[in-house]
Amino acid sequence: ELYPGDRDDILDFSQPSHEKNLRGGFWELEGIYGNRYRWIQDKASAVLTRVDPRPQRIRIRGFATPEFLQGGGGSPTIKVNVNGQACGNWTIDRTGVFILEADLPDAPSYEVEINASPAWIPAGDDRRVTVNISMIRLIPRE
User: Which of 2, 59, 65, 71 is the most exposed place for a label (fewest CB within 10 A)?
Assistant: First the structure.
């Protein structure tokens, strides 16, 4: 089996090879080994390539801060589009790690777009951020 960092169906932000699959909206890599992540802007996108013939699901692991939950403009939400089609819409109601999963249609590859709001600006920083993401992967549908 290939090491996860060499697979195009798993974007593990602890592996240096994940960068080739990022398309836009991600800030620089942060964290320590075993817990690497990237803050995202209002919209971020990446591409995953299917390697398993079974029906697929997407799994996104991230982290929501108190600032994201307390931002203005309505409920803190994350919407995911895959290959241009809506595939999930989640309201985030607590601080901490979140796991989002949704079934995917059959396709040879998946362009994943993550839309999160509200955005906020960390103290002493000029970046506009929403949540941070540590992994995006394809898994077999149960």
Answer: 2
Tell me the β-bridge partners of 47. Answer: 111
Residues 100, 33 contacting (CB under 8 angstroms):
no
Q: DSSP readout, 115-140?
A: EEE--B--TT----B--EEEEEEEEE
Residue 132, Cβ neighbours under 10 Å: how many?
22
Q: How many residues does the structure list for the chain? A: 142
**Can you read off the two tokens belonging to residue 105?**
């249609």
- pLDDT, averaged per 10 consecutive residues of the chain (142 residues), comes to 67 90 97 92 97 96 95 85 97 96 97 96 94 97 86
